[in-house]
Design goal:
Layout (H helix, E strand, L loop, with lengths): L5 E3 L5 E3 L4 H5 L4 E12 L2 E17 L4 E2 L7 E15 L2 E12 L5 E10 L2 E10 L2 E8 L6 E6 L5 E2 L3 H4 L10 E7 L2 H7 L6 E8 L2 E6 L4 E6 L7 E7 L2 E11 L11 H6 L7
Parallel strand pairs: 12-13
Antiparallel strand pairs: 1-2, 3-4, 3-18, 4-5, 4-6, 6-7, 7-8, 8-9, 9-10, 10-11, 13-14, 14-15, 15-16, 16-17, 17-18
């Protein structure tokens, strides 16, 4: 009989030992997770859909972009693209957040954000360095465009990295309390609030993480027990709720022919045009 190694998290559940991160995530595929999405906008809940795309890629540490050719400053990053689309009456929102973390320790190196809706474009970029975060914000709203400079406190968590960090892909996230916390770039955009560090309490019961943010919001993240510990559902009240509708591992960048829309059905997503 084959022996299966088990380990138990502090949260109480046990499962087969996780595979090696590098072996699992460097198989030439990306993980795509589709979600049924609800977003609060203009005082009403809006139905939409989201897809989370996880993949590794080479990254130029000096230029802070994907490296065309490996060089002396090339590092390996684990990238998450968070694509959210939702309707607001006549017109829709199309938003995307890209989170780049070092594959070695899953610490952020870059976060970028774009929003396209019928009123205009918004783009934001944050670059992470020891002790500081720099960046730029470009908006069609007067008074919002300009450079950004933030401290980077030790042990700080950025809202946009939660969808990576809470998966425990390099070991269980465990439990933390009263950590420095930076709200997400999408939340900042929709609320028209500047990014400012606050604090959050992060706790875990079973496979559910609860994030209580000092700004009054509460988040809940339900994590799949077996590897790769996908996010089964998440909510950051009162703004966002999402529930997993499908997941696949494919080289999606090759699936651009007519007919490849069939993969969207496996994700529970609808094509842009039917």
């Amino acid at each position: 009989m084959k022996t299966i190694a088990l380990f138990v998290l502090a949260t109480g559940f046990a499962f087969a030992a996780d595979p090696d991160f590098d072996t699992y995530w460097r198989d030439g595929k990306a993980e795509l997770d589709g979600y049924r999405l609800t977003v609060s906008r203009y005082g009403q809940e809006r139905a939409g859909q989201a897809v989370l795309i996880y993949v590794t890629e080479p990254f130029s540490e000096s230029k802070r972009v994907k490296a065309d050719q490996p060089g002396p400053d090339t590092i390996d990053v684990f990238k998450l693209n968070i694509v959210r689309d939702f309707q607001t009456g006549l017109y829709d929102y199309n938003t995307m957040v890209s989170v780049f973390v070092r594959s070695a320790d899953l610490t952020p190196v870059k976060i970028s954000f774009s929003s396209a809706e019928w009123c205009g474009h918004v783009y934001e970029e944050l670059l992470f360095y020891p002790g500081k975060i720099t960046g730029d914000y470009f908006s069609y709203f007067e008074g919002e465009t300009g450079p950004q400079q933030l401290d980077r406190p030790a042990g700080g968590i950025v809202e946009d990295e939660l969808l990576i960090a809470l998966r425990g892909l390099r070991g269980a996230f465990g439990e933390r309390k009263a950590v420095p916390f930076l709200p997400g770039v999408l939340f900042s955009r929709l609320a028209h609030k500047p990014l400012v560090w606050t604090t959050a309490d992060i706790s875990c019961a079973g496979n559910v993480y609860t994030v209580k943010i000092a700004d009054g919001r509460t988040g809940k993240f339900t994590v799949e027990e077996a590897y790769p510990h996908r996010i089964l559902r998440w909510e950051l009240l009162p703004d966002v709720k999402a529930e997993l509708t499908g997941t696949i591992r494919v080289p999606y960048w090759q699936l651009h022919r007519n007919g490849d829309e069939k993969y969207l059905k496996e994700l529970g997503l609808k094509p842009t045009v039917e």
